[in-house]
Design brief:
about 130 residues, alpha+beta, Cytochrome Bc1 Complex, Chain D, domain 2, globular
Length: about 130
C-alpha cells in the first residue's frame, strides 16, 4: 500500500501552474515572427517589408542610446502595445495590444504590481539585449 505515496510528488507537480515564458529566447522568437519583416532580423529597420514602406522603421538597437543609456522598457512596451503612439508613428505599425499577447504576468515595480502580457514582456526583454 505504500506505492500510492510515490505518486504524491507527481500529483503536486501537476497542480503547480506553469509560468508564462517571458525569456529573451521567447522574445526573440516573437520578434522574428512579428517584427523582423519590418525592423529587420537584426533590429536595424531594414526588413524586407520595412524597406518598401514610405517611412523606414526605426533602428531598434539604439533605443537605450537615445534614452541616455537606459533601456526605456515601459515606453517600448506601450509603443508595441499601441497605447502610447505619437503622430510620428507610421500607420504600418500594428497595435499589437489588440492581438492575443498571451497570458499576463505581474511585473512589480516600487511595490506596485502591473499585469503585462507575457509576449509583450518577452519582446521587451529581447529588445533590451540587442542595444548597442
Amino acid at each position: 500500500m505504500k506505492k500510492p505515496l510515490l505518486l504524491i510528488p507527481f500529483l503536486l507537480g501537476a497542480c503547480v501552474a506553469q509560468q508564462p515564458d517571458t525569456s529573451v529566447e521567447a522574445g526573440k522568437a516573437a520578434y522574428q515572427t512579428e517584427c523582423a519583416a519590418c525592423h529587420g532580423a537584426d533590429g536595424r529597420g531594414a526588413g524586407d517589408f520595412g524597406v518598401e514602406l514610405f517611412t523606414i522603421p526605426p533602428d531598434l538597437t539604439t533605443l537605450s542610446a537615445q534614452n541616455g543609456g537606459d533601456f526605456p522598457r515601459d515606453y517600448v512596451m506601450s509603443v508595441i502595445d499601441g497605447y502610447d503612439r505619437s503622430h510620428a508613428f507610421s500607420a504600418a505599425m500594428p497595435e499589437f495590444g489588440v492581438l492575443d499577447l498571451g497570458p499576463t504576468v505581474i511585473v512589480e515595480e516600487d511595490g506596485v504590481g502591473t499585469p503585462v502580457p507575457a509576449t509583450l514582456l518577452a519582446l521587451a526583454n529581447y529588445l533590451e539585449t540587442i542595444q548597442e
